[in-house]
Amino acid sequence: MDIKIVGTGCAKCKKLEETVREVVQELNVDAEVGKISDIKEIAQTGILMTPGLIIDGKVKLSGKVPSKEETIKIIKSSLP
Fold it and tell me: Does pTM top 0.90 for this prediction?
């Protein structure tokens, strides 16, 4: 699973990354978590409001920081 956190590094983006990494570890998901922080790259994702979450190339969330429970649901629903 390829997970990307989309954002310029604001507090909300950091919180989303922290939550995603925590959930991935708890669920023991084989995932690579990365960041997209370059403005040009962010524009190419189609995400207009950060933070954003992309899993396996699909935008799953933008413009808010989900709760841990929401993050678990998003990641579980993206498992093969």
Answer: yes
CA distance 15 to 41: 20
Q: Annotated catalytic residue: which of 8, 10, 22, 25? A: 10
pLDDT digits (tens, 9 = 90+) for 7-26: 999 999 999 999 999 999 99
- Give the model confidence (pLDDT) of 41-73 as tens digits: 999 999 999 999 999 999 999 999 999 999 999
The number of helices, as runs of H, and strands, as runs of E, in the chain is 3, 4
Q: Is 56 a residue of the active site?
A: no
**Catalytic pick from 3, 5, 6, 13?**
13
Q: Tell me if residue 13 is catalytic.
A: yes
CATH hierarchy code of domain 2-77: 3.40.30.10
